[in-house]
Amino acid sequence: MTFRTETDPLGEKQVPADALYGIQTLRAAENFPISGLRPLPAFVDAVIIIKRCAAQTHRETGRLEPEYADAIIRAADEVLAGQYRDQFIVDPYQAGAGTSHNMNCNEVLANRANELLGKSRGSYSPIHPNDHVNMAQSTNDVIPTAMRLATLRTLPSLLSAMAGLSASLLAKGRQFDAVLKSGRTHLQDATPIRLGQEFTAYGHTIERHQQKLAQAAEWLYAMNIGGTAVGTGLNAEVRYPALMVKYLRDLTGLPVAVADDRIQLMQSMGDIATFSGAYRAFVLDLCKIADDIRLLASGPRTGLAEIQLPAVQPGSSIMPGKVNPSIAEMVNQVCYQAIGFDTTVAMAAKAGELELNVMMPVITHNIVFGLMILARAVQVFDEKCIRGIEADAAQCAHWLERSPALVTALAPRIGYAAAAKLAKEAIATGLTVKQLVVEKKLLQGRELEEVLDLRAMTELGVPGGGKGSPAGG
Asked: In which domain, by residue range, is 300 found?
């Protein structure tokens, strides 16, 4: 390997001759050999987009020579097309604020722009990373803006996956509408419910979270670019913020806007924490649904076994024929990781002091990576598990007819105390509620069939008393 000598305010270093990054990036790579991870592509793209739009803005205002601006724009376009990704080498766990990642992007674009102008890497002439690529910018307004852009541009994949999952759950709700089963509360027998009602409720839960996430994302459209070091806009032209937002909007298609208070957005990570909170709420419900799927499929002989999951792989290296709820287990694990990401975001969001939150690199990494893995998990859950679920109607009926909770339908006729006594007797004798009612001649004929109509028990009203009757509440 051959090297070139570069200089920064701390002195000289030998940089690989073929590297597009420079001395400040190399220092960061040497200082932070933490995780072995590279910056997420969405984070790289977001910063490069900002640099591209800045070059466009400065070309329009005349602050940057058109030839230099065009070279930076061309270099940015190459990166956004997928080139030179191996040149972004700073670990996500780095110095505060994200200066290392910002300089990595500045140096790559400067070196490539100079190459396009016929100059050598490392010359930083005529285009300099700080003076030209970073013109009118600070890490302190670039990274908060990039955080928002990266999050907003990653979110659609998750929203799309959520739409698919909710549609599949609602379809299962329709498919299973005739399947009667025992409800369960406290993991104990409860009044009847239809399997279709359970799945429809799951679908509506995902739908509601999709709406909430989209609403929470609206807080992220405000851009504080132009705030420079502390939000006041020192060294940025008056036209700069509005032009930047215009070009960002044109390039990304996002309805971004100039922030009302750039200082506030630099001090506070409240908007991203709000979004992360909405994301966490979704994760909690998604995890609960995966838990329920595993429980409903438990067995096949010693569990509930009310549904059958698609078999995707052998479940044991020692027990032949065993099949596990592998996809739902994966979803649970992703959810646990995602909850950890949200906790990190929350702790980092509160850690900002005075004019800047320096924990932005870890906030960005966690929220964006969380969205990425959650989107994939939701899609796989939908395609490889939910869509292939089948109901075991006979097993559902088996548990339902043995449920002592069916006495609830008798309570309006015989009273709560007598119904409770009947439930206790059913458990003790092993007889069904209906068998005991017939044996004791508590109800007979049509009245018996109407009051113990299992389908009617899954609808609003009093069985045998007419839906919507005063007794139904």
From this structure: 151-226+267-394
